[in-house]
Amino acid sequence: MTSIPEIPPTRTQARGAPIVVAFIIFDGVSSLDLSGPLSVFAGASHFLKQKGKHGYECPVVSLRGKKIVTDLGAAFLSQPASRLARQRIDTLMIPGAMGAMDAALADRKLLSWIARQGRRARRVCSVCAGGRLLAASGLAEGRRMVTHWAHCGVLQEQNPGVTVETDPIYIEDGPVWSSAGVTAGIDLALALVEQDFGRDLAMAVARQHVVFMKRPGGQSQFSTMLEAQIAGKNTFARLHEWAIERLGDRNLNVDQLAAHAGMSPRNFARVYTATTGRTPSKAIEFMRLEEARRLLEDTDKSVDEISDQIGFGSTERMRTTFQRNLKVSPRDYRLRFGCAS
What we know:
Blueprint: E1 19-24, H1 31-50, E2 56-57, E3 60-62, E4 67-69, E5 75-77, E6 79-80, E7 91-94, H2 101-105, H3 108-120, E8 123-126, H4 130-136, E9 144-145, H5 152-158, E10 163-164, E11 170-173, E12 176-179, H6 184-197, H7 199-208, H8 224-232, H9 237-244, H10 254-261, H11 265-276, H12 280-298, H13 303-309, H14 315-326, H15 330-337
Parallel strand pairs: 1-2, 1-3, 1-7, 3-6, 7-8, 8-12, 9-10
Antiparallel strand pairs: 4-5, 11-12
Helix pairs in contact: 1-6, 1-7, 6-7, 10-11, 12-15
């Protein structure tokens, strides 16, 4: 049974009132984008109630207030968005959809409502492809965002004033929060609970949901090795397999990759980058990072041993690589994800 943590008072909450987190939904919305964060806030409210404290109030609204059919065919009964006109919204949540975004993006009334309510709220947050609605509303102009990896390209193309990052699980940039694909909305919601009520409550909710507390926002949203296999298609598939087997070779470099591919280093670097979207040296770094993550999660080898085994050359270089790409140190990564720690 999960113990009830001590919960400090929050400055964001009016005395004697719950924190209002409003969800705006539309036809075809992703069920998990909506239900994942809702469940986190409900779990937090459960613990808070046991302590005699107010938690979260989470109205689910749509423009017309009707049954909204989700991507799975289930329906949510939403309230009319107009009911929030006089209610103080602390946080506005914008879930996404994998197949219904074009219709939502073409709904000028929806975008106008998001822009208007988002300016009133302390925080405005998007889950998955909901980031496209957030950006289209103008609220993210000049800020950093992330979305589902399949939508990152179009998000950047349609919103040049937004800096789109492709790897993080979630990003906080001032009042604008955004998360990557689907289950990353749970990570974002846990981070919001931690900001509001402290780490102990967020950890209790994470344990209740049997999820990690909590994936760092900078953790990559998908496998680097899988990404390399997809991006390289058949062109460099065997080369990637060859390189992965030789990560422990500190001399593994562009020249070796080019020689194995039967190309000159200059031509190889040009073709590889054009095909995969990454330079060969960056690809090697990410492959080592992926293997280091696996070893930290699944073994009890020390950071020094892992650094030496997969060719980083030094613990400091491995630490720098983790901080640059995941915004977390190897030791902290193991504390969060290591099964053997």
